[in-house]
Amino acid sequence: MAPVRYLVEDLEAAVTFYVDRLGFTVSQDWGPVVIVTRGAVELWLSGPGSSAAAYPLQGSRFVLAVPDLDATLAELGLEPEIVDGPGGRWAAIEDPESNVVELFEQP
After folding, report:
1. Assigned CATH topology for domain 4-105
2. What is the pTM of this model?
3. According to the model, what pLDDT value does residue 92 have?
4. For 45-69, how does the pLDDT look when each residue is reduced to its tens digit (9 = 90+)?
5. Where are the domains of the chain?
6. What is the distance between the alpha carbons of residues 7 and 49, in angstroms, rounded to a whole number?
């Protein structure tokens, strides 16, 4: 399962919508990022204070967990900015159609 990250302006309203209206439950709360789940769906709601909101490649994206971010980027021949967030290290890359993919390494 690959999580999906949505960048949101109003984190509280987004959490309320997904939990109260769509039946998700809060599984983790990292402050500016709240992870909600429903069945096999894991949604990372990232508010304005999250490291994801400050990164140059804006937009919602799916998150692909990798065991070693540096090795993965080297293998891909890419050198994007690496961000050290509260939950782990990550980098956003683009596919050939300019869709954003987040590569995420947890500590």
Report:
1. 2,3-Dihydroxybiphenyl 1,2-Dioxygenase; domain 1 (3.10.180)
2. 0.77
3. 92
4. 999 888 887 776 677 888 999 999 9
5. 4-105
6. 10
Neighbours of 107 (CB within 10 A): 6
Contact 36, 77 (CB under 8 A): no
pLDDT of 19 reads 96
> Which two tokens mark 38?
């429903």
Q: Judge contact between 101 and 94, C-beta under 8 A.
A: yes
Phi, psi of 55 (to 5 degrees): -80, 145
- CA terminus-to-terminus distance, the chain: 19
**Nearest by Cα to 47 from 62, 37, 32:** 32
State the burial class of residue 92 (Cβ atoms within 10 Å of its Cβ: 0-12, 13-18, 19+): buried
Measured distance CA(50)–CA(20) in Å, rounded? 23
Residue whose C-alpha is closest to residue 30's, from 84, 82, 87: 87
